[in-house]
Amino acid sequence: xxxxxxxxxxxxxxxxPGCQYFKSTHPQxxxxxxxTTGMTDKSILNFAAAIDRNINDYKxxxxxxxxxxxxxxxxxxxxxxxxxxxxxxYTANGTISNTVKSYxxxxxxxxxxxxxxxxxxxxGSVFKDIRTYIRNNVTFKIDSxxxxxxxxxxxxxxxxxxxxxxxxxxxxxxxxIKGINDAINGTDKFDMVFDNIxxxxxxxxxxxxxxxxxxxxxxxLVKNKDTYIDSLLNFPSLFKDxxxxxxxxxxxxxxxxxxxxDTITSASGLNK
Length: 272
Prior knowledge:
Blueprint: H1 2-12, H2 41-53, E1 59-62, E2 66-68, E3 71-80, E4 83-93, E5 97-106, E6 109-121, E7 124-135, E8 138-147, H3 150-155, E9 159-160, H4 173-185, E10 192-200, E11 203-210, E12 217-221, H5 227-234, H6 236-239, E13 247-251, E14 254-258, H7 260-265
Antiparallel strand pairs: 1-3, 2-3, 3-4, 4-5, 5-6, 6-7, 7-8, 8-9, 10-11, 11-12, 13-14
């Protein structure tokens, strides 16, 4: 099941040559102080729990919601002093599967990757948690648990995943992080330009497309029009294939346009 899901992510997200892990240059105040080399599975979990507890104190950046066919991806980054502490992706393949994948960093090192997966099949739902522990850029432990419901999953202990040929399979995590940053910054495959503005009886959407990957798209729901939206409606050809300067927010798994006046009065939590 994990292989199937990772294939789904690979179709849409982060396929590029390997690179080095990010280097942090500032201390992470309020988090346990321990050298990464000496960390154990327990100390890694404690460190990740500290990040989760303080998540509201960190700077949050987030992407558009990107679609490619039935696949959709949304990314978040939480930082202290502009250093990434936690990166998250939310990936769905229609009604077949969805997952939340979290990457925890300490200083310059990735130390933990957590996955929560829901997979639908003919027999019903399968829920799975996977935790991958990393030390000095090498995976030293993986554990997981599986159940038929989310409630049942939370009651189960994690079981050790056995190694194959004396090692765990290698993952290109630097590629994942590069892709998350691209998604948030709107670069590389996620460099989106204006395609059209669609009107429906009860909804208005700004439709964007990737400059490099034409099957990558994003839609932004417009709840309240302003002069900028009027210009898109009246003169769409002037904006065609151009980069739009706009703000958005994420609510209920939707990307929602923030009118210009709102960005002036309250920029808190807005992206781009």
